[in-house]
Amino acid sequence: MPRIAAVLDRLLAPFRDRSRGPRRVRYLIGEGRSTPLALFVNGRRRSDAASPAEAIDLLLWDVYDRAFRGESESLVIHAGLVSLRGRGILLPGLPDAGKTTLVAGLVRAGFAYLSDEAAVFDPASGRFLAFPRPLGMELPTLRLFPGLEERLPAELRGTDRMTRHVPATAIRRGCIGRSCVLRHVVVPRYRAGAATRLEPAGRAETLMLLSRSAFSSRRFAADGLEPMAAALAGAGCHRLEMGDLAGAVDAVASLVA
């Protein structure tokens, strides 16, 4: 399956490890029994797949799940994360709040990309780390970026699945960021037809939102509450009502201008 391997190599390029250490997980996409393809993990059949896009989707979700479960030191928060000149902007929020759309718009505008769904916080250093997984962009979001879907490999386009895995470098080359210090938390909420508006939010309210957004809220409360509170002490907290992408990008950019 050389074409699928080439697509995965592109999607996971930011995570490439050039060391020759032991490989703990081995993936194989081969022929299925009742479906064209199947995903094998360490030699065992994990899932059947009806198309290359579905096989890629299954493999990526297994990679993410293992990464989150295996991360023992850091805290993972359901949030987007970008930076500009080393100043981090965290974008937590409910599903369908427009986080991924806003992250993609900020990357196109020149911000560095660290994540769209999994912001990784290191309590020891008080910094956020990069987890530059491909953005999970739904078709309405893709249409806000003319030409972007056409630049994706055919294996990611030729499917009826609503979500596409989009490498951030397809939006802008050289956009992958490094660890950053938190400078702003912006909680977006998309509302069709609304006037785009940025307003202050309380730190306690924001800290509770981050706690609820953590992949393990119990661990957050036990190990991360105090370090995160310290990180927030040096950051501005905001709510962003989004009616249009251009206005939302301008509002966030104004924070770090």
Please write out the topology.
Elements: H1 2-11, E1 27-30, E2 37-41, E3 44-49, H2 52-70, E4 75-84, E5 87-92, H3 99-108, E6 112-115, E7 118-122, E8 127-129, E9 135-138, H4 139-142, H5 154-157, E10 163-166, H6 168-171, E11 181-190, E12 197-200, H7 203-213, H8 217-233, E13 236-242, H9 245-255
Parallel strand pairs: 5-11, 11-13
Antiparallel strand pairs: 1-2, 2-3, 4-5, 4-6, 4-7, 7-8, 9-10, 12-13
Helix pairs in contact: 3-9, 7-8
Quick structural summary:
The chain is an alpha+beta fold and 257 residues long.
Helix-strand pattern, N to C? HEEEHEEHEEEEHHEHEEHHEH
Strand content: 25-35%
Total number of strands = 13
State the end-to-end distance. 47 Å
Largest sheet: 8 strands, mixed
Q: Runs with pLDDT <50, length 5+?
A: none
- The global form is globular
The total count of helices amounts to 9
Q: Can you give the mean pLDDT?
A: 89
SS class: alpha+beta
Helical content stands at 25-40%
Radius of gyration: 19 Å
